[in-house]
Amino acid sequence: MAEAPKPKKQTSAEKRARQNVKRQARNGAIKSSLKTINKKFLEACASGDKAQAEALLRQTAKEFDKAVSKHVIHKNKASRKKARLAKRITAMATAAPSKKGSKKS
Q1: What CA–CA distance (Å, rounded) separates 28 from 51?
Q2: Which fold has domain 30-98?
Q3: pTM (2 decimals)?
Q4: DSSP assignment of 41-79
Q5: Greatest CA separation for the chain
Q6: What is d(CA 36, CA 59) in angstroms, rounded to the nearest whole number?
Q7: 80 secondary structure, DSSP code
Q8: pLDDT tens digit string along 58-68?
Q9: Which whole-number Å values give the CA distances from 80 to 2, 40, 65, 89, in the listed order?
Protein backbone atom coordinates (compact mmCIF):
# COMPACT_ATOMS: atom_id res chain seq x y z
CA MET A 1 0.00 0.00 0.00
CA ALA A 2 1.36 3.43 -0.94
CA GLU A 3 1.99 6.00 1.75
CA ALA A 4 0.28 9.37 1.61
CA PRO A 5 2.71 12.08 0.52
CA LYS A 6 4.04 14.25 3.31
CA PRO A 7 2.91 17.86 3.21
CA LYS A 8 5.49 20.14 1.68
CA LYS A 9 7.40 22.14 4.26
CA GLN A 10 6.93 25.85 4.18
CA THR A 11 10.03 27.70 3.04
CA SER A 12 11.47 30.46 5.15
CA ALA A 13 11.26 32.83 2.19
CA GLU A 14 7.47 32.49 2.09
CA LYS A 15 7.24 33.24 5.79
CA ARG A 16 9.53 36.27 5.47
CA ALA A 17 7.39 37.56 2.59
CA ARG A 18 4.27 37.35 4.78
CA GLN A 19 6.05 39.07 7.66
CA ASN A 20 7.27 41.84 5.37
CA VAL A 21 3.73 42.55 4.17
CA LYS A 22 2.50 42.91 7.77
CA ARG A 23 5.46 45.07 8.79
CA GLN A 24 5.12 47.27 5.72
CA ALA A 25 1.48 47.98 6.58
CA ARG A 26 2.29 48.73 10.23
CA ASN A 27 5.32 50.89 9.41
CA GLY A 28 3.35 52.81 6.80
CA ALA A 29 0.62 53.59 9.32
CA ILE A 30 3.15 54.78 11.91
CA LYS A 31 5.00 56.95 9.39
CA SER A 32 1.73 58.43 8.19
CA SER A 33 0.72 59.38 11.73
CA LEU A 34 4.16 60.97 12.22
CA LYS A 35 3.68 63.10 9.13
CA THR A 36 0.19 64.12 10.25
CA ILE A 37 1.21 65.20 13.76
CA ASN A 38 4.26 66.98 12.32
CA LYS A 39 2.03 68.90 9.90
CA LYS A 40 -0.32 69.90 12.74
CA PHE A 41 2.65 71.22 14.71
CA LEU A 42 3.93 73.25 11.75
CA GLU A 43 0.45 74.73 11.19
CA ALA A 44 0.28 75.76 14.86
CA CYS A 45 3.70 77.42 14.52
CA ALA A 46 2.62 79.22 11.36
CA SER A 47 -0.52 80.53 13.05
CA GLY A 48 1.60 81.85 15.94
CA ASP A 49 -0.27 79.89 18.64
CA LYS A 50 2.63 79.15 20.98
CA ALA A 51 0.59 77.32 23.63
CA GLN A 52 -0.88 74.91 21.10
CA ALA A 53 2.51 74.48 19.42
CA GLU A 54 4.15 73.55 22.75
CA ALA A 55 1.42 70.98 23.45
CA LEU A 56 1.82 69.53 19.97
CA LEU A 57 5.61 69.46 20.39
CA ARG A 58 5.26 67.18 23.41
CA GLN A 59 2.83 64.95 21.52
CA THR A 60 5.05 64.91 18.42
CA ALA A 61 8.14 64.01 20.44
CA LYS A 62 6.22 61.16 22.05
CA GLU A 63 5.16 59.83 18.63
CA PHE A 64 8.74 60.00 17.33
CA ASP A 65 9.94 58.08 20.40
CA LYS A 66 7.29 55.41 19.83
CA ALA A 67 8.37 55.04 16.20
CA VAL A 68 11.97 54.61 17.35
CA SER A 69 11.00 51.95 19.87
CA LYS A 70 9.21 49.99 17.12
CA HIS A 71 12.25 50.36 14.80
CA VAL A 72 10.30 52.30 12.18
CA ILE A 73 12.78 55.19 12.09
CA HIS A 74 16.35 55.56 13.32
CA LYS A 75 16.88 57.13 16.73
CA ASN A 76 19.18 59.82 15.32
CA LYS A 77 16.54 60.84 12.78
CA ALA A 78 13.96 61.19 15.55
CA SER A 79 16.41 63.18 17.65
CA ARG A 80 17.18 65.50 14.73
CA LYS A 81 13.49 66.05 13.97
CA LYS A 82 12.65 66.78 17.63
CA ALA A 83 15.53 69.24 17.90
CA ARG A 84 14.41 71.10 14.79
CA LEU A 85 10.84 71.31 16.05
CA ALA A 86 12.03 72.62 19.43
CA LYS A 87 14.11 75.19 17.59
CA ARG A 88 10.93 76.48 15.93
CA ILE A 89 9.32 77.00 19.35
CA THR A 90 12.39 78.93 20.50
CA ALA A 91 12.28 81.03 17.34
CA MET A 92 8.63 81.82 18.03
CA ALA A 93 9.50 82.97 21.56
CA THR A 94 12.32 85.26 20.41
CA ALA A 95 10.47 86.60 17.36
CA ALA A 96 7.28 87.55 19.20
CA PRO A 97 8.69 90.23 21.59
CA SER A 98 10.75 91.93 18.87
CA LYS A 99 7.66 92.51 16.73
CA LYS A 100 5.70 94.11 19.58
CA GLY A 101 8.56 96.30 20.76
CA SER A 102 9.62 97.75 17.42
CA LYS A 103 7.92 100.92 16.24
CA LYS A 104 8.60 102.80 13.06
CA SER A 105 8.81 106.58 13.32
Answers
A1: 30
A2: Methane Monooxygenase Hydroxylase; Chain G, domain 1 (1.20.58)
A3: 0.74
A4: HHHHHHHT-HHHHHHHHHHHHHHHHHHHHTTSS-HHHHH
A5: 108
A6: 12
A7: H
A8: 999 999 999 99
A9: 66, 18, 12, 15
